[in-house]
Each structure stands twice: as C-alpha cells, then as structure tokens.
Amino acid sequence: MIVVVEGMSAAGKTTWCCQAAGDTLLPETFPADRHNQPLEGPEVAAYWVEWNTQRWRNALALEASKGMAVCDTDPLKLHYSWGLWQLGEKQEADWQFSLQETRRAIAQRQLGFADMVLIKPIDASTARHQMETDITRTRSRFDLHFRLQRFLIEWYSALEAVFPTRVKWGLPKDFKIPPVTVNPGRYDLKAFDAFIASLPKPLSS
C-alpha cells in the first residue's frame, strides 16, 4: 500500500510521519541541484517529473519490501505547478508542460495515484507558530506555501470526487494509519483526465 501525507509547510506532516510510519517512511526530499535549474519551460517540467518518478519508484520498492510506503508529500506533486498557475506565479504554458509530462509518466506507469491520501489543512497563525518554534528547518517560502494551501485543498477535494474514500482530512492523533486497500486506478488515465478536467479554472481565464 502507498499512503501519502500532505499539507502545507509547517502543518506538522513530517513530525506526524516520523511517529506514525517507522521504517515504512519515504521522506520528503529535493534534488541537490534544484536551485541551478531554469524557472520555466519544458525542461523544468521534465526535470521535476523525473524527480517525482524516482520518488514513486522508491515508494514501490518500499511497498514491495515492507508492505507499505508512507510518503511525506505526494510523489505525484502536480498540485504545486497547478497552484502556482492559479496564483499567477506561473504561466499557463508552464502548467501545461508539467501536466503533459506527468500524464506521459502515468501512461508509462512511472507515476501513479496513491492508495490513500491523508491531508492536514491548518490555519495561518498555528502554522506560523509551528514554523517559528521549529529550529531544525528554515522555511523561507512560508507565505507562498500558505497562499497555496487553498489550492492544495481544492486539488485533493477534486481527487476525492474521483476516488471516494481514498482522501482523508486530518492526521490521526493516535498516529495510526487508517485501513487501506490497493487503488485499482493507480495508473488510470481516464480517471486522471477526469480529475484534471474537474479542477477549478483561474478567475482570470
């Protein structure tokens, strides 16, 4: 089983994952050379989708060896590009590059939908307090991530409509993973297309 834990920066998802997942945890990671990459264009989409496919491969390997992988953030992280487009921080062309590259990866079974997503919305004051008291990490883009939270919620609300019961809101306080079964639509392109088509459009479009 592959379980994704999502939420904005400082929502507490990493802390929860560390206590709940044990040796089934797939940590959130980033490529070391990401700051040297261009900010737009098809090469950027290919770069990040390749990174995401590596995380998905790691999740599959962990699932094969342990029976479960708990991913701190979604390997299928297309919501980030979509959210930036919604905010006007990214051009529609760049969103389309990311979308098509991700769709190709799903068609080739290099990326897929998780079996369950646990997502934790959080209010700004609580998130800011948790950010300021966490001395182990710097979060220089906190304000952007809080602005993106609205679209993160819209993204997984739309996913919930396509895959009912597979999106859970909030993180269990007892740190126990809810019962989960394999999602038969992991690589379902029709489901992916229906999901994308159901997403809200920017107000300016």
Overall description:
- The protein is an alpha/beta fold and 205 residues long.
- It has one domain: Rossmann fold, CATH 3.40.50.300.
- The protein is 49% helix and 9% strand.
- The chain has helices at residues 13-20, 42-66, 78-87, 92-107, 124-133, 142-162, 189-198, and strands spanning 2-6, 25-26, 69-72, 116-119, 167-169.
- It has a five-stranded parallel sheet, with helices on both faces.
- β2 (25-26), α2 and β3 (69-72) form a beta-alpha-beta unit.
- The radius of gyration is 16 Å and the shape is globular.
- The mean pLDDT is 90.
Mean pLDDT: 90
CATH hierarchy, class:
Alpha Beta
Distance between the termini: 38 Å
The number of helical elements comes to 7
Task: Return the CATH architecture.
Answer: 3-Layer(aba) Sandwich
Any low-confidence stretches, pLDDT <50, length ≥5? none
How many extended strands?
5
Strand content: 5-15%
Net shape = globular
- Going by helix content, strand content and strand pairing, the class is alpha/beta
> Taking strands numbered 1, 2, ... along the chain, how are they ordered across the largest sheet?
2-3-1-4-5
Write the layout of secondary structure elements.
Layout: E1 2-6, H1 13-20, E2 25-26, H2 42-66, E3 69-72, H3 78-87, H4 92-107, E4 116-119, H5 124-133, H6 142-162, E5 167-169, H7 189-198
Parallel strand pairs: 1-3, 1-4, 2-3, 4-5
Helix pairs in contact: 2-4, 3-4, 3-6, 6-7
